[in-house]
């Protein structure tokens, strides 16, 4: 059910106040009346209001002072001023102080309804924007990024220093290590948090489109440019632009990007007019840019411009302590999304996850957890519920914890017999032939392993 708009109506003329209150209530609003500034202050101390409609002249104060106090305490509340003594000077002052609009007596009720409707729409949009920004800030608080390992604690310590600056940052790390999450955390914990965060995945945009995507274009710049369009840099003005996979950027565009960093201005494609911008640049790469510089595929001067503060993210295999907390986090996330009861990991499954090398890093771990939640019927995830590559690596890898060789051999036998039976539709004689065994030996092994016959 949609929540009613809360309106505070301040007017010392009782008959007019009561008539307007009735009209607004019939329109579906929740209306509170006040006859003076003192009475209004009492209501404002107790309740929150979306819209305030106040007479400009009151016995103990005036609408401009009420407007100032409201905007100081509740910037999102919209204020509409009403007066029987309109003047251009008063109207200008009211709007300068933050009034939404200004209407004169005798009131045109239809006009007032339209003004209130637009004020309500603006209030809702601003409130939703503030709510969404708060959600983003909360989501990307450092405390919400999982990482108790020494390697990640070093990353957090550096990030806490980075957010106090406005310097350019280069995040390096393998694919799937969470470079964009870290970039967002830096933005939403820094001084630009209320301004835009714009992400551009350079490797995902065709080379012939990347320039216009970054810098925009003017009408007629090329076939299909039927109107002006701002680029990502202009969209990020005042905030942060995140250039992911920066190492894939063509050399021609690297030159233009270098100029943007040096001059703090962009030129749209097809234009020669520079546009000043104020943008923090955070870039990311899974390549060794120093090596790319040596190979001539990346400009050395741009590399040094981007690499003011380097931030390296460790691969998941170097932060084994974080695997279980991350796995539990993703399990909870996908159980909630798929409306399942909370699932747990058996000890053997945990050991397998911690023993796996995770070439795809955190992204691969998340994908595995989504898969097991979708495909596992039981509430406990065992070794056999994990993908074959994780099972096999866990069985054949010796770690510092040691290995139960008898158990490993048994699990390998179980896995190979299961695969052979699947390939032969359960026909044991054919499965035995695939395993170079006779049928009786296969049946005996299955009985010893506790497999259904």
UniProtKB/TrEMBL annotation:
InterPro entries: AAA+_ATPase, AAA_lid_NorR, CheY-like_superfamily, Homeodomain-like_sf, HTH_Fis, P-loop_NTPase, Sig_transdc_resp-reg_receiver, Sigma_54_int. The modification 4-aspartylphosphate is found at residue 55. This is Sigma-54-dependent transcriptional response regulator. GO terms for biological process: phosphorelay signal transduction system; regulation of DNA-templated transcription. Residues 145-374 form the Sigma-54 factor interaction domain. Residues 6-120 form the Response regulatory domain. CDD domains: AAA. Keywords: ATP-binding, Nucleotide-binding, Phosphoprotein, Transcription, Transcription regulation. GO terms for molecular function: ATP binding; sequence-specific DNA binding. It comes from Geobacter metallireducens (strain ATCC 53774 / DSM 7210 / GS-15).
């Amino acid at each position: 059910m949609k929540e009613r708009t809360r309106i505070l109506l301040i007017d010392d003329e009782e008959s007019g106040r009561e008539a307007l209150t009735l009209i607004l209530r019939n329109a579906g609003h929740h209306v509170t009346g006040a006859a003076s500034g003192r009475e209004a202050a009492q209501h404002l101390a107790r309740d929150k209001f979306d819209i305030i409609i106040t007479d400009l002249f009151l016995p103990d104060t005036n609408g401009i002072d009420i407007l100032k106090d409201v905007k100081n305490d509740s910037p999102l509340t919209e204020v509409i001023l009403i007066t029987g003594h309109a003047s251009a000077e008063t109207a200008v002052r009211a709007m300068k102080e933050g009034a939404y609009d200004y209407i004169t007596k005798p009131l045109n009720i239809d006009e007032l309804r339209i003004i209130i409707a637009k004020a309500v729409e603006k209030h809702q949009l601003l409130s939703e924007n503030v709510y969404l920004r708060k959600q983003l800030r909360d989501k990307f608080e450092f405390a919400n990024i999982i990482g108790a390992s020494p390697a990640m604690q070093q990353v957090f310590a550096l990030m806490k220093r980075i957010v106090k600056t406005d310097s350019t940052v280069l995040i390096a790390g393998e694919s799937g290590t969470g470079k964009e999450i870290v970039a967002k955390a830096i933005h939403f914990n820094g001084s630009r948090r209320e301004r835009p965060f714009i992400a551009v995945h350079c490797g995902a945009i065709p080379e012939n489109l990347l320039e216009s995507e970054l810098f925009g274009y003017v009408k007629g710049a090329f076939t299909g440019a039927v109107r002006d369009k701002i680029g990502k840099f202009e969209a990020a003005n005042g905030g942060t632009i995140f250039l992911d996979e920066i190492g894939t950027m063509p050399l021609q565009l690297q030159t233009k990007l270098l100029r943007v960093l040096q001059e703090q201005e962009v030129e749209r494609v097809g234009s020669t007019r520079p546009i000043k911008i104020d943008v923090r640049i955070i870039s990311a790469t899974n390549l060794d840019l120093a090596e790319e510089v040596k190979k001539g595929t990346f400009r050395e001067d741009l590399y040094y411009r981007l690499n003011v503060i380097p931030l390296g993210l460790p691969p998941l295999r170097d932060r084994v302590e974080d695997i279980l907390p991350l796995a539990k986090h993703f399990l909870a996330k996908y159980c909630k999304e798929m409306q399942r009861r909370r699932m747990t990991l058996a000890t053997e499954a945990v050991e397998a996850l911690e023993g796996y090398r995770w070439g795809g890093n955190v992204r691969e771990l998340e994908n595995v957890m989504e898969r097991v939640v979708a495909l596992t019927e039981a509430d406990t995830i065992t070794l056999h519920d994990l993908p074959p590559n994780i099972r096999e690596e866990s069985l054949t890898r010796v770690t510092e914890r040691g290995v139960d060789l008898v158990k490993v051999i048994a699990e390998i036998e179980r896995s190979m017999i299961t695969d052979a039976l699947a390939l032969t539709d359960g026909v044991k004689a054919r499965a035995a032939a695939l395993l170079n065994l006779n049928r009786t030996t296969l049946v005996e092994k299955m009985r010893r392993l506790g497999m259904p016959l």
